[in-house]
Request: fold
Amino acid sequence: MTNKEAIANFKKILFGEDKVTEKFEEVSLSDDSKIQVEPTIEVGAVVSVVDSEGVVTPLPDETYELSDKRKIIVKDGKIESIDDVQEEAEEMGETVTQEEVNQMIQAIESMFKSELESVKSDFSAYKKEVKENNAKVNKALFETLEVFGKEPNETPPKKKGGVQTKRKNAFH
Reply:
């Protein structure tokens, strides 16, 4: 039995619980280390770190960058504030208006339509060329078949007494 199973079993006996539910969220920092936030990332949530031996300690006071680029400021083991990436982008003037997005979409659609027309034109030319080549091949094939159709495929055997026979000679 593992430690986790033993603890779950103990809680089941002590509290009569069938399932042990964890009430924290494990979050990755930008350096790929893991922290625990109880109950979820919000101002006032308890933030802790679990060391390799499983000992839980409050996260030291500092500013931490999460893997999703948000920053949390921790004071006294709790989240004091959350800096959202979107808010920072807006402050830097990196937002794009709906009109700019629409203009980009129109430009892309225009480029796509132009390219599509070019492909259609190339395809039509190719299709015409294939039809012409097919007509030439069919004509040559028909002419060849006519020539072969006019030639006998074998010389007819000689008739003797009204009955056709063909002799096979082993020496010829």
